Protein 1
Amino acid sequence: MPTVLTTQDVATLVQRVGLPDLLRRLVGYLETDYARWAEFDKTPRVAAHSQDGVIELMPIADASLYSFKYVNGHPKNHRVGLPTVMAFGVLADVATGSPALLSELTLTTAMRTAATSVMVAKRLARPDSRVMALIGNGAQSEFQALAFHHLLGIRELRLYDIDAAATAKLVRHLQHTPGLTLTVCSSTAEAVRGADIVTTVTADKTNATILTPDMIEPGMHINGVGGDCPGKTELHRGVLEMGRVICEFEPQSRIEGDMQQMPADFPVTEFWRVLAGQAPGRDNDAQVTVFDSVGFALEDYSALRLLRDVSAQLGLGTPLDLIPQMADPKDLFGELHLDGHRQAA
């Protein structure tokens, strides 16, 4: 019988473990799974696009576990009281097809995206990076901020969003974080000036130009998170041409990432190769590096594994009678319990 983890279950899990420790453990799970890259049956996510947004399914499997995530992206949802991103996922046993875990992934997606950003930045950003510009201060921004602060040593966040209320919300949440200075800026250019790392996590479903080449300084690491579907970009193509570009899964990233602006022969490197030592990350302190992050199913697989393990340790979750528990597995009709009931003619 599968276990269900609700939004409240995941919130309780975070409260009991602590967000910094959970993010640290999630980075470990991600690194373990990315190191097994060749073992996974991988495919780009399946997307249904509409005028207002996108709904996607993200499947992946190895020899023992299968997972998928249902996720949407609807930037106008706040107008009707809904999150821009909503998600849930399943972890199942490959040998039998039996689902083991059904979990919320809205909160978890924000955490796994932040953990993935840190995992990559550990290999691409300069080790002495202490200042990060955070462009886009919406739903995912606090997760990115805290992940980089606690796990990568960022001490100052330079904040900008076209919506001042979003920045005020972030400041309200993080203003008492020990060792973290928050600097509110009046433009993207002001925010990125002097930053070691620039994280863009904007939401509009448009070909936007958040960062331009004139804003980029030697040695910067660009963590481009918001350009994640066809027709949605954040980086001027000239930014991509300035340095080494790392992606998650090239067949998906060329369709959905900022890389969609580039020709098919534009050189990119999948992150697993950097992790395995097959390709370099950063060559020198002056090099510009870009992580074209779109989100990949392997990251949700890792997150679901972590949720399964930690929730079991903490006794969280509820068994769900989702699959018939049959005395005779061949007698599916018997599960309707129609014996003794008059059936319609």
Protein 2
Amino acid sequence: MDALHISLATLIFLVFLALVFDFLNGFHDAANSIATIVSTGVLKPYQAVMWAAFFNVAALFVFHLKVAATIGTGIVDAWAVDQMVVFAALVAGIAWSLITWYFGLPISASHALIGGLVGGALVKAGPAALQWEGLGMVLAFIVLSPLLGMLLGGGMLVLVSWLCRRQMPRRMDRWFRRLQLVSAALYSLGHGGNDAQKTIGVIWMLLLAAGVSQSDDPVPLWVVVVCHLAMGLGTLFGGWRIVKTMGQRITKLTPMGGFCAETSGAFTLFVATSLGIPISTTHTITGSIVGVGSARRLSGVRWGVAGGILWAWVLTIPSCALIAAMAWELGQFFLP
């Protein structure tokens, strides 16, 4: 791919915009990491966000950048990427994150970003610009990640309940309060590993388009570090509107149920990140919470709330593609 002429000011502005999106991703998805541990009373909110933020940042030492490579090269063909496409994708991701945060809806910031990339690329170059294999994988895991989380969460609760059937409830409650610290840490580690890499992939895509980096170069270390730090900082501020939806409105969680939901969600994220699959951490933990609630009894899940969340998921990619298309047109007027 021939390097584009992108001014230094534009490059700095778009990197800053990507970090704003990353911050909002952490802010919006803080609920995923802390809702269960807060709703069960294991940690107070300010303790939970500090715990989650630490492990969001620590993920940079654990995972290879396979998800970043998928976002950077596997969704939109390199020849179609320019500053307008990146700008449109980031504006769409930021706008959708703020809109859904206002209504307390736990949506996927990563799918918002992917929808933005699709919308910007379609306006610029049409369907030929899309990598259909990579996009198909993302669309498949919109369905598979919550289903896997639900099956693992429900199955784990059944197994753990059977193993602990002869134990005193008070003793088990005390033990699972401690174990939730571990499961929440693992989930936050998986969240940081998968979600921070999506912003890393966008910045890398931009650096490749500008000719600052070459395709066979490693991702610059500063990109990896600042993206994890931005996500951790966003998590510290927390999206409290969404915590209530995730931790209380879908189903009532106990420490045992919270442990099972977080552990099954963490397992799903670790596997997906190791395979380079950009999945939704929101979809994963929501599926796990629904699985835990339905394993106790189907009426234990507020299906109306779950249905509202599902509609937000369905609308994310097309809505963000539309916002990105409008942002692409807007960018023509002021973005050099």
Protein 3
Amino acid sequence: MTDQGLKAMAQSRAPKFGHFVVEFATPGIGHILKSAGCDFVLFDLEHSGFHFETVKSVIRYFEAAALPTIVRVPSKEYHHIARAMDMGAEGLMLPMVNNAAEVRHILNSMKYHPQGGRGVALGVAHDRYTPGAVADKFVAANKRSTFFCQIETAEGVENADELAAIDGVDCLWVGHFDLSVSLGVPGEFEHTKFKDAITRTHAACKRHGKSLGRLVPNVETGIQLVNEGFDFICYSGDVWVLQSALAEAIGRLREGTKSHRS
């Protein structure tokens, strides 16, 4: 897909492919992912241990590679949401969003007046340290910011239609492991309860013209989900891609050099 921002991506049902970063916030990571063909990156704060100083740096790496960045913050606390936006996150992902009241709080925390009540900081990282009229800055920031609402609980599924209907929600993102646990079928992604939850979430997205996303462990699952109606596909994560490729290569090296062992 051609280079475009997350907001434009979320307004299209064409497949978008990205990668999950939980470990390697290195200076070259943006260009590495971009040269691999990624359309976006999902940068995790929930499980990675990264802090906002790292976010501030790594988003510059992604900007240098023109790679749109979704930051998943660790909670629904205002300071987590607003600080991620101040650091320059184009997209924001929130874990375990359950109901409309939580969505309204999130949007109020990430959007500037008149769409929200986010504290004002201009001429900093999120607007690339540039000057400009306050009103214009507010409009640009609100237009650019893209909200990925994570469906990870039975309550979230129950309210999926209401969540997808809210202006400002750009994508419902299925957190498959946590959702399966919440439904009482841990890791059973072929279980009727889980499949019914996906059907309901997809229907909500389709009804309200919103994107649908998920992390996938392999190519086959990604292709299957696109065929089922998902359009944001995040392929695996940095740790697991490296580990898998290295394990395969080391295993083949050992197998191919058996005759040289004493």
Protein 4
Amino acid sequence: MRIFVTGSIAYDYIMVFPGKFKDHILADKMHVLSVSFLVDSLTRRRGGTGANIAYNQALLGEKPVLVGTVGEDFEDYRQGLEKRGVDSSGVRVIANEHTASCFINTDLADNQITAFYPGAMSKASTVSPKDLGATTSDLVVIAPNDPAAMARYAAECTVAGIPYLYDPSMQLPRMDKAGLQEGCKGAKILAGNDYEFGMMAEKLGVSESELRGSVPITVMTLGEKGALITVDGKEYEIPSAKPEKVLDPTGAGDAFRSGFVAGMSRGFSWPVVGRMASLTAVYAIEHPGTQEHAYSLDEFLARYRSNYGSNDEIETLSNGRGQA
């Protein structure tokens, strides 16, 4: 099984304002708002849902094929991903464009002002896993991305019978019922957090339990409470792993999906798949940024044992691809 990962590929520009936004915004002048904040730090980090998922899968010994569009400023990013083991042959550079960029300004009260420029991501529908040779023996991950690209990938996979994981999450607010139905229709796996499952159920006009029964496999993350995996109507409650510290929850969901897909591709049992995913997510929240953490498979195994105990399935991780 090859894993094709689609989703946004972006740079995150993170700034910190050493004050509070509210102290510099006049309520009676909101209709003519014009304000500038002098920040005292700026950090550029690698992000994007697709790239985050591919990065975490590579840490687990996978060789995911990342699929998407980027700008001419992507070369350093590409080298970093390839060094970890990500196959970037499915990433297309769009001439005279910038890689998608998110500009986040945070004040001392944790309020944020964010601007997102899609840049090259708006051309994501020009490349697809099917074009790159994905077959019914593979798995496609459809993570938040340009809406036209997500729709294309789901439609192509459904017609061709290519299994796919569907994760609309951050694009849900702009999706209508018909679009969500099309995305879910051919999905093998539907993923999201508990809030997103509630939003999907409301948009589709069904109960959450009906939604979880409408797709062969659903995985719903529950934050500190762990996760719930439903397979053909059977539920598996997954306990969360213990973080050493919590610095930044951003990217935890992407990391969870990476662990889930990696465990499933190896043929692990669902309780082990879920625990593997939960532990993968913990690494992300212990570091600022979504791709700042790293570990060896031996380190991952040791931490799995300390959280959940050992078992024969998880021990095969040390042998590369394990049971696949």
